[in-house]
Amino acid sequence: MIEIDALTKQYGSTTVVDRVSISIATGSITVIVGTSGSGKSTLLRMINRLVEPTSGRVVIDGSDTTTEPPHLLRRRIGYAIQGHGLFPHRSIAENIATVPRLLGWNAARIQARVDSLLNIFQLDPGEFGGKFPHQLSGGQQQRVGVARALAAEPTVLLMDEPFGALDPIIRAKAQDDLVDIQRRFGTTIVLVTHDIDEAFRLGDRVAVMSHGQVLQYDRPAVLLTRPADPFISRLTGTGDRAMKLLALTTAGEAAESGAAGGPTVAASATLRDVLSDLVWSGAPEATVVNADGTPRGRLTLAAILSHGKPS
Fold it and tell me: Could you give the CA distance from residue 296 to residue 287 in angstroms, rounded to a whole number?
Protein backbone atom coordinates (compact mmCIF):
# COMPACT_ATOMS: atom_id res chain seq x y z
CA MET A 1 0.00 0.00 0.00
CA ILE A 2 1.23 3.47 -0.92
CA GLU A 3 -0.36 6.41 0.89
CA ILE A 4 0.27 9.83 -0.63
CA ASP A 5 -0.81 12.41 1.93
CA ALA A 6 -1.21 16.10 1.07
CA LEU A 7 1.93 15.96 -1.07
CA THR A 8 3.05 19.36 -2.30
CA LYS A 9 5.98 20.66 -4.34
CA GLN A 10 6.76 24.32 -4.76
CA TYR A 11 9.55 26.02 -6.69
CA GLY A 12 9.64 29.53 -5.33
CA SER A 13 6.14 30.93 -5.71
CA THR A 14 5.09 28.26 -8.22
CA THR A 15 3.17 25.25 -6.93
CA VAL A 16 3.83 22.27 -9.21
CA VAL A 17 2.00 19.65 -7.12
CA ASP A 18 -0.77 20.92 -4.85
CA ARG A 19 -1.76 18.85 -1.78
CA VAL A 20 -2.31 15.56 -3.59
CA SER A 21 -3.73 12.71 -1.50
CA ILE A 22 -4.35 9.26 -3.00
CA SER A 23 -4.13 5.65 -1.81
CA ILE A 24 -2.57 3.03 -4.10
CA ALA A 25 -3.48 -0.59 -3.41
CA THR A 26 -0.78 -3.24 -3.16
CA GLY A 27 -0.41 -5.25 -6.36
CA SER A 28 -2.32 -2.76 -8.51
CA ILE A 29 -1.47 -0.62 -11.51
CA THR A 30 -2.18 3.06 -10.95
CA VAL A 31 -1.79 5.45 -13.86
CA ILE A 32 -1.30 9.20 -13.49
CA VAL A 33 -2.44 11.02 -16.62
CA GLY A 34 -2.47 14.68 -17.59
CA THR A 35 -1.18 17.22 -20.05
CA SER A 36 2.37 18.57 -20.06
CA GLY A 37 3.02 20.68 -16.98
CA SER A 38 0.22 19.09 -14.94
CA GLY A 39 2.67 17.88 -12.27
CA LYS A 40 2.35 14.16 -12.94
CA SER A 41 6.08 13.39 -13.32
CA THR A 42 6.95 15.50 -10.28
CA LEU A 43 4.37 13.60 -8.25
CA LEU A 44 5.87 10.29 -9.38
CA ARG A 45 9.41 11.35 -8.52
CA MET A 46 8.42 12.42 -5.03
CA ILE A 47 7.49 8.79 -4.28
CA ASN A 48 11.15 7.72 -4.46
CA ARG A 49 12.46 11.18 -3.45
CA LEU A 50 14.16 12.00 -6.72
CA VAL A 51 12.26 15.20 -6.00
CA GLU A 52 11.97 16.18 -2.35
CA PRO A 53 8.46 17.30 -1.31
CA THR A 54 7.91 20.77 0.05
CA SER A 55 5.29 19.33 2.39
CA GLY A 56 3.18 16.23 2.85
CA ARG A 57 4.43 12.67 3.00
CA VAL A 58 4.58 9.31 1.24
CA VAL A 59 4.04 6.12 3.27
CA ILE A 60 4.91 2.75 1.71
CA ASP A 61 3.68 -0.33 3.57
CA GLY A 62 3.35 1.70 6.75
CA SER A 63 6.81 3.27 6.58
CA ASP A 64 7.30 7.01 5.99
CA THR A 65 9.82 7.37 3.13
CA THR A 66 11.64 10.17 4.98
CA THR A 67 12.83 7.70 7.62
CA GLU A 68 15.56 6.25 5.39
CA PRO A 69 18.29 7.78 3.20
CA PRO A 70 17.05 8.54 -0.35
CA HIS A 71 19.65 6.32 -2.05
CA LEU A 72 18.58 3.30 -0.01
CA LEU A 73 14.91 4.03 -0.68
CA ARG A 74 15.56 4.12 -4.44
CA ARG A 75 17.35 0.78 -4.39
CA ARG A 76 14.16 -0.95 -3.24
CA ILE A 77 11.88 0.90 -5.67
CA GLY A 78 12.15 0.07 -9.36
CA TYR A 79 12.28 3.04 -11.75
CA ALA A 80 11.86 2.94 -15.53
CA ILE A 81 11.83 5.98 -17.81
CA GLN A 82 11.20 6.88 -21.43
CA GLY A 83 14.27 6.10 -23.50
CA HIS A 84 15.12 3.25 -21.09
CA GLY A 85 18.23 4.99 -19.62
CA LEU A 86 20.48 2.00 -20.28
CA PHE A 87 24.21 2.42 -19.79
CA PRO A 88 25.58 2.32 -23.37
CA HIS A 89 28.97 0.85 -22.51
CA ARG A 90 27.63 -1.94 -20.30
CA SER A 91 26.31 -5.23 -21.65
CA ILE A 92 22.64 -6.10 -21.29
CA ALA A 93 23.44 -8.49 -18.44
CA GLU A 94 25.54 -5.81 -16.70
CA ASN A 95 22.75 -3.26 -17.09
CA ILE A 96 20.20 -5.57 -15.47
CA ALA A 97 22.64 -6.45 -12.67
CA THR A 98 23.24 -2.80 -11.67
CA VAL A 99 21.11 -2.59 -8.51
CA PRO A 100 21.68 -6.17 -7.28
CA ARG A 101 25.43 -5.43 -7.35
CA LEU A 102 24.89 -2.24 -5.35
CA LEU A 103 22.96 -4.32 -2.82
CA GLY A 104 25.84 -6.76 -2.50
CA TRP A 105 24.22 -9.83 -4.03
CA ASN A 106 26.66 -12.65 -4.77
CA ALA A 107 27.58 -13.47 -8.36
CA ALA A 108 25.52 -16.66 -8.57
CA ARG A 109 22.36 -14.95 -7.35
CA ILE A 110 22.88 -12.05 -9.76
CA GLN A 111 23.42 -14.37 -12.72
CA ALA A 112 20.33 -16.39 -11.87
CA ARG A 113 18.20 -13.24 -11.61
CA VAL A 114 19.54 -11.79 -14.88
CA ASP A 115 18.92 -15.04 -16.76
CA SER A 116 15.45 -15.39 -15.26
CA LEU A 117 14.40 -11.87 -16.27
CA LEU A 118 15.82 -12.19 -19.77
CA ASN A 119 13.85 -15.40 -20.23
CA ILE A 120 10.69 -13.80 -18.87
CA PHE A 121 11.06 -10.94 -21.36
CA GLN A 122 11.67 -13.43 -24.18
CA LEU A 123 15.33 -12.47 -24.65
CA ASP A 124 17.57 -15.54 -24.69
CA PRO A 125 20.37 -14.98 -22.10
CA GLY A 126 22.97 -16.66 -24.30
CA GLU A 127 22.11 -14.45 -27.26
CA PHE A 128 21.34 -11.12 -25.59
CA GLY A 129 23.22 -11.10 -22.26
CA GLY A 130 26.54 -10.10 -23.83
CA LYS A 131 25.13 -7.57 -26.30
CA PHE A 132 25.14 -3.81 -25.84
CA PRO A 133 22.08 -1.53 -25.94
CA HIS A 134 22.81 -0.17 -29.43
CA GLN A 135 22.61 -3.71 -30.79
CA LEU A 136 18.97 -4.08 -29.70
CA SER A 137 15.77 -2.76 -31.23
CA GLY A 138 13.76 -0.07 -29.45
CA GLY A 139 11.27 -2.63 -28.15
CA GLN A 140 14.04 -4.89 -26.88
CA GLN A 141 15.73 -1.97 -25.13
CA GLN A 142 12.43 -1.11 -23.49
CA ARG A 143 12.11 -4.66 -22.15
CA VAL A 144 15.65 -4.54 -20.78
CA GLY A 145 14.87 -1.22 -19.09
CA VAL A 146 11.91 -2.77 -17.28
CA ALA A 147 13.95 -5.89 -16.48
CA ARG A 148 16.64 -3.72 -14.88
CA ALA A 149 13.99 -1.91 -12.82
CA LEU A 150 12.71 -5.28 -11.57
CA ALA A 151 16.13 -6.85 -10.99
CA ALA A 152 16.31 -6.30 -7.23
CA GLU A 153 12.81 -7.73 -6.72
CA PRO A 154 11.16 -4.41 -5.77
CA THR A 155 7.62 -4.39 -4.48
CA VAL A 156 7.04 -0.99 -6.14
CA LEU A 157 7.82 -0.01 -9.74
CA LEU A 158 7.62 3.61 -10.92
CA MET A 159 7.39 4.23 -14.68
CA ASP A 160 7.64 7.68 -16.29
CA GLU A 161 6.30 7.65 -19.89
CA PRO A 162 8.03 4.28 -20.45
CA PHE A 163 6.45 3.62 -23.86
CA GLY A 164 6.42 7.14 -25.27
CA ALA A 165 9.27 6.58 -27.76
CA LEU A 166 7.89 3.32 -29.21
CA ASP A 167 5.90 2.97 -32.42
CA PRO A 168 2.22 1.95 -32.00
CA ILE A 169 2.64 -1.78 -32.71
CA ILE A 170 5.64 -2.22 -30.40
CA ARG A 171 3.98 0.00 -27.81
CA ALA A 172 0.86 -2.20 -27.69
CA LYS A 173 3.02 -5.30 -27.22
CA ALA A 174 5.04 -3.57 -24.48
CA GLN A 175 1.82 -2.67 -22.66
CA ASP A 176 0.63 -6.28 -22.82
CA ASP A 177 4.03 -7.46 -21.56
CA LEU A 178 3.82 -5.07 -18.62
CA VAL A 179 0.41 -6.39 -17.57
CA ASP A 180 1.68 -9.98 -17.81
CA ILE A 181 4.78 -9.16 -15.74
CA GLN A 182 2.72 -7.33 -13.12
CA ARG A 183 0.44 -10.35 -12.74
CA ARG A 184 3.46 -12.67 -12.47
CA PHE A 185 5.25 -10.70 -9.75
CA GLY A 186 2.35 -8.86 -8.06
CA THR A 187 4.35 -5.63 -8.26
CA THR A 188 2.64 -2.37 -7.33
CA ILE A 189 3.08 -0.15 -10.40
CA VAL A 190 2.64 3.61 -10.65
CA LEU A 191 2.89 4.81 -14.24
CA VAL A 192 2.81 8.30 -15.74
CA THR A 193 1.48 8.97 -19.22
CA HIS A 194 -0.15 11.72 -21.26
CA ASP A 195 -2.11 9.13 -23.28
CA ILE A 196 -5.61 8.54 -21.89
CA ASP A 197 -6.07 5.37 -23.96
CA GLU A 198 -2.89 3.94 -22.44
CA ALA A 199 -4.11 4.95 -18.99
CA PHE A 200 -7.41 3.12 -19.48
CA ARG A 201 -5.72 0.07 -21.01
CA LEU A 202 -3.28 -0.37 -18.12
CA GLY A 203 -4.75 1.20 -15.03
CA ASP A 204 -6.79 -0.45 -12.32
CA ARG A 205 -7.29 3.14 -11.18
CA VAL A 206 -6.42 6.37 -12.95
CA ALA A 207 -5.56 9.77 -11.44
CA VAL A 208 -6.28 12.71 -13.75
CA MET A 209 -4.06 15.73 -13.01
CA SER A 210 -4.31 19.34 -14.09
CA HIS A 211 -2.39 22.36 -12.73
CA GLY A 212 -0.82 20.30 -9.95
CA GLN A 213 -4.07 18.86 -8.61
CA VAL A 214 -5.74 15.47 -8.93
CA LEU A 215 -9.19 16.22 -10.34
CA GLN A 216 -10.45 12.65 -10.10
CA TYR A 217 -9.02 9.30 -9.02
CA ASP A 218 -11.09 6.26 -9.85
CA ARG A 219 -11.60 3.23 -12.05
CA PRO A 220 -11.50 3.90 -15.80
CA ALA A 221 -15.19 3.05 -16.22
CA VAL A 222 -16.14 5.66 -13.63
CA LEU A 223 -14.01 8.33 -15.31
CA LEU A 224 -15.76 7.57 -18.59
CA THR A 225 -19.31 7.45 -17.29
CA ARG A 226 -19.16 9.92 -14.41
CA PRO A 227 -16.40 12.48 -15.05
CA ALA A 228 -16.08 14.88 -12.12
CA ASP A 229 -14.79 17.84 -14.13
CA PRO A 230 -15.25 19.31 -17.63
CA PHE A 231 -11.51 18.82 -18.24
CA ILE A 232 -11.93 15.08 -17.64
CA SER A 233 -14.84 15.00 -20.08
CA ARG A 234 -12.68 16.61 -22.75
CA LEU A 235 -9.72 14.36 -21.95
CA THR A 236 -11.73 11.14 -22.13
CA GLY A 237 -13.51 12.25 -25.30
CA THR A 238 -17.27 12.58 -25.73
CA GLY A 239 -17.59 11.09 -29.22
CA ASP A 240 -15.94 7.70 -28.67
CA ARG A 241 -16.78 7.09 -25.01
CA ALA A 242 -18.79 3.96 -25.85
CA MET A 243 -15.84 2.43 -27.70
CA LYS A 244 -13.53 3.21 -24.78
CA LEU A 245 -15.95 1.43 -22.46
CA LEU A 246 -15.88 -1.62 -24.71
CA ALA A 247 -12.08 -1.62 -24.52
CA LEU A 248 -12.24 -2.04 -20.73
CA THR A 249 -13.93 -5.47 -20.84
CA THR A 250 -12.55 -8.71 -22.28
CA ALA A 251 -14.49 -11.26 -24.28
CA GLY A 252 -13.88 -13.81 -21.53
CA GLU A 253 -15.45 -11.55 -18.92
CA ALA A 254 -18.56 -10.89 -21.04
CA ALA A 255 -19.02 -14.34 -22.62
CA GLU A 256 -22.37 -16.04 -22.16
CA SER A 257 -22.81 -19.80 -21.87
CA GLY A 258 -23.81 -21.81 -24.90
CA ALA A 259 -22.48 -22.81 -28.29
CA ALA A 260 -22.06 -20.23 -31.05
CA GLY A 261 -21.03 -19.92 -34.65
CA GLY A 262 -19.27 -17.04 -36.33
CA PRO A 263 -15.61 -16.12 -35.92
CA THR A 264 -13.51 -17.47 -33.07
CA VAL A 265 -12.11 -14.84 -30.70
CA ALA A 266 -9.68 -15.12 -27.80
CA ALA A 267 -11.00 -14.66 -24.27
CA SER A 268 -8.31 -12.00 -23.78
CA ALA A 269 -9.61 -9.86 -26.68
CA THR A 270 -11.46 -6.67 -25.78
CA LEU A 271 -15.10 -6.20 -26.66
CA ARG A 272 -14.02 -3.40 -28.99
CA ASP A 273 -11.84 -5.89 -30.90
CA VAL A 274 -14.64 -8.46 -31.05
CA LEU A 275 -17.11 -5.85 -32.29
CA SER A 276 -14.68 -4.94 -35.05
CA ASP A 277 -14.37 -8.63 -36.04
CA LEU A 278 -18.14 -9.08 -36.14
CA VAL A 279 -18.73 -5.96 -38.19
CA TRP A 280 -15.99 -7.01 -40.62
CA SER A 281 -17.30 -10.56 -41.01
CA GLY A 282 -20.98 -9.66 -40.93
CA ALA A 283 -21.60 -12.33 -38.28
CA PRO A 284 -24.15 -11.76 -35.48
CA GLU A 285 -22.12 -13.61 -32.84
CA ALA A 286 -18.69 -15.04 -32.04
CA THR A 287 -17.30 -18.08 -30.25
CA VAL A 288 -15.03 -17.19 -27.33
CA VAL A 289 -12.15 -19.57 -26.62
CA ASN A 290 -9.59 -19.79 -23.82
CA ALA A 291 -5.83 -19.62 -24.39
CA ASP A 292 -5.70 -23.42 -24.72
CA GLY A 293 -8.40 -23.39 -27.41
CA THR A 294 -11.23 -24.73 -25.27
CA PRO A 295 -14.63 -23.03 -25.70
CA ARG A 296 -15.48 -20.32 -23.17
CA GLY A 297 -18.91 -19.28 -24.45
CA ARG A 298 -20.55 -16.99 -26.96
CA LEU A 299 -20.82 -13.26 -27.56
CA THR A 300 -23.62 -11.63 -29.52
CA LEU A 301 -23.67 -8.15 -31.00
CA ALA A 302 -26.49 -7.20 -28.62
CA ALA A 303 -24.48 -8.32 -25.58
CA ILE A 304 -21.44 -6.37 -26.74
CA LEU A 305 -23.42 -3.19 -27.39
CA SER A 306 -25.03 -3.41 -23.94
CA HIS A 307 -21.56 -3.11 -22.41
CA GLY A 308 -20.99 0.15 -24.30
CA LYS A 309 -23.79 1.92 -22.45
CA PRO A 310 -23.13 3.86 -19.23
CA SER A 311 -24.34 1.97 -16.18
Answer: 8
